[in-house]
């Protein structure tokens, strides 16, 4: 995010001596993106972050994509995915390409290790449950509806405090940022943005750990998972400052943009990644032209795949979808409201729908795990009902 934050203790000048009470030096670490030309923060550790006692390869991550035999709309019932594992191991990847992957997670176990994605940024959407995102930058308390935005290279663990926990996980191969059209030349969010800096929730507290022992950090890089063992706690940071940090944004703080006639999907955009966008569909008033049709018009995704994750409410243009449904409408063929939904929307004043959308500008592939959850009749759900 394009604003400066400081937490804990930092020296007056960077790259200068900064001593512990016992006279030893704190260890300075620059954490940045795009070499030295992207956003960055400087962290001050009790121990050198390079002080590793053991490293080993755990596994190669195989997404198990299935080549598309037919160009068709697909519907996946994500709540039927197996529960289990922790907030990392329990991720069930369903769709992806070389830019981004999407999965769901319903963990039943805690993390006895720490995790770092060194391939790209992550967005973890909290569908159900409460808990803490504990990171090297500090702790963020999360609740249903939160987007947890975790920058590349952030060491963290997710600690649920409720049993019924469900996440939608989007992992990028690059950075995930607010849309450029909502920011001025300095990076500040503009007045027409559907959210502003006040809605961004930063780490609430920085807890510095000085414990010694054996601590595991699992690192994902180049589709491979590695294990690093340290003889000190990875959250040994006494202070940090800069522009790179994790944050939370609630979907309930997204202010919808409406108009006299139906507005196109880009008005729902919340984040942008390389070759994809993330959008939020939230409760809102319908169009107020006296002859407006609130339901969306039929449209062809000529250059994007559209994925919708249904969170709550009654989605006015669809039938047969339920909480946790994921629909994929691929590029190249048209889609739109189900039969009767256009007529039923006329005269309606508002919608209570809640959903997260992922639009990609390169085709997505489904995994074997996704196909096991597929409602295969979905492609034909636009046919008129026989009387």
UniProtKB/TrEMBL annotation:
Give the active-site positions: 262 (proton acceptor)
GO terms for CC? cytoplasm
Q: Where is homogentisate annotated to bind?
A: 335
Q: Which CDD domains match?
A: cupin_RmlC-like
Q: Cofactors per UniProt?
A: Fe cation
Q: Which Pfam families has this protein been placed in?
A: HgmA_C, HgmA_N
Which residues are noted in the entry as Fe cation-binding? 299, 305, 335
GO terms in the biological process aspect are: L-phenylalanine catabolic process; tyrosine metabolic process
* Keyword Magnesium listed: no
Every Homogentisate 1,2-dioxygenase C-terminal domain range:
264-386
E.C. number(s) listed in UniProt: 1.13.11.5
Alphabetically ordered keywords of this record: Dioxygenase, Iron, Metal-binding, Oxidoreductase
Q: Which GO terms describe its molecular function?
A: homogentisate 1,2-dioxygenase activity; metal ion binding
Note the superkingdom of the native organism.
Answer: Bacteria
The residues covered by the Homogentisate 1,2-dioxygenase N-terminal domain are 107-248
PANTHER family listed in its UniProt record: HOMOGENTISATE 1,2-DIOXYGENASE
Instruction: Give the UniProt family note.
Output: Belongs to the homogentisate dioxygenase family.
Q: From the Swiss-Prot or TrEMBL record, give the protein name.
A: Homogentisate 1,2-dioxygenase
